Amino acid sequence: MKIAVLGTGMVGQALAGRLAQLGHEITVGTRDVAATLARTDPDGMGNPPYSRWAQGHPQVGLTTFAEAVAGAELVVNATSGAVSLDALAAAGAEQLAGKVLLDISNPLDFSRGFPPSLFVSDTDSLGERIQAAHPELKVVKALNTLTAELMVEPKALAGGEHTVFVAGNDADAKRTVTTLLESFGHTDIIDLGDITGARGTELVLPVWLRLMGTLNTPKFQFKIVR
Amino acid sequence: MKIAVLGTGMVGQALAGRLAQLGHEITVGTRDVAATLARTDPDGMGNPPYSRWAQGHPQVGLTTFAEAVAGAELVVNATSGAVSLDALAAAGAEQLAGKVLLDISNPLDFSRGFPPSLFVSDTDSLGERIQAAHPELKVVKALNTLTAELMVEPKALAGGEHTVFVAGNDADAKRTVTTLLESFGHTDIIDLGDITGARGTELVLPVWLRLMGTLNTPKFQFKIVR
Known about the structure:
The structure is a homodimer. Chain A is an alpha/beta fold and about 230 residues long. Chain A is about 40% helix and about 20% strand. Chain A contains 11 helices and 11 strands. In chain A, the strands form 2 sheets. In chain A, strands 3-2-1-4-5-8-9-10 form an 8-stranded mixed beta sheet, with helices on both faces. Chain A has a two-stranded antiparallel ribbon with strand order 6-7. In chain A, helix 1 (about 10-20) links the parallel strand 1 (about 1-5) and strand 2 (about 25-30). The longest helix of chain A has 14 residues, at about 170-185. Chain A is globular, with a radius of gyration of 16 Å. The interface of A and B includes residues 204, 208, 217 and 225 of A.
């Protein structure tokens, strides 16, 4: 499948790399290609810059948000939540219309330091805001409750099976995303219903961040025992 | 141990019954004893009224919030989140000072129907509000992420081990609560640090409520796989 991955950080790199490995044709979208390639320092989490990652993934293209989306059948939103709506606006509402969006973003506001606060919560969610801004886009919230490495390689975690969630208004789009998640190795995928299900999964982030501090690793996952 | 359980609903009954079974001396506290005993209808969830439950638990006393707390070494807050601060005020700040409070409450606002919204979230929590209102009370947030039956009988759930959390400012108080949780059968208890850890566990409620609808049962639990 032709897939656009929006975002060049840790999440974008993880998704683009794994999807390419699985045989998909991947184009990464960024706001400013030259600026992305010019960065040579690790990001705030110590991850290598995109340019170094790209050297190891020559089959993955890099272009603007709009060009990446133009040629794609499916779009992955791997941008920081704070810039997701801007990135999708730059990609172009007309080009997005009718496509499936795997939305991994979280409404985290790091402007006052760590831990971040939430810029949407409770009776709304970032997934819903994206859906409202792009009514013809088929938004499926998923993978926003775990660290990038485990999103695409769930078996990398010792300790057994765990759970991921999908939420969205379009049943076919959820089936498409579910099939992708299964191709990554996820085996317990719970459908939380329409896009308002994003509220709950986005609000898991505060305990996730706290656990990352307590356990001193981002390599853990939620399992719904039942 | 002499324990006061504040609240006569499903959570209060579960805690009082199990603690009595384990040999503790339990007094349940309520706002208005006569009104509590006069109710003969099931609650909104179909649970039997307190008076019927009490018939099967003659060793458990019922009195006012203040009298229950007066004789207790440890206090359990099993009231609805919306009335927790009022219940604790009625119990009396002076009587609470220095005691351990196992706080199970969640900041759920059902006034606009289901699903409830949150009346505290993000950069504050109900656990913190209770601690702020009673600086000398040793508040330990715990058990607020699972249904009443599983709080006190975790082994009742098929599917293996799961995780509960404690958060509070007083290390000795957390040890006391952890020992209680272990006596219920909990084996994976994660200490999230000070009472600000309550933010994350209270925000788990929206996805918990959504999962209850999706799975059509409240009998599930979170496991932190690591």
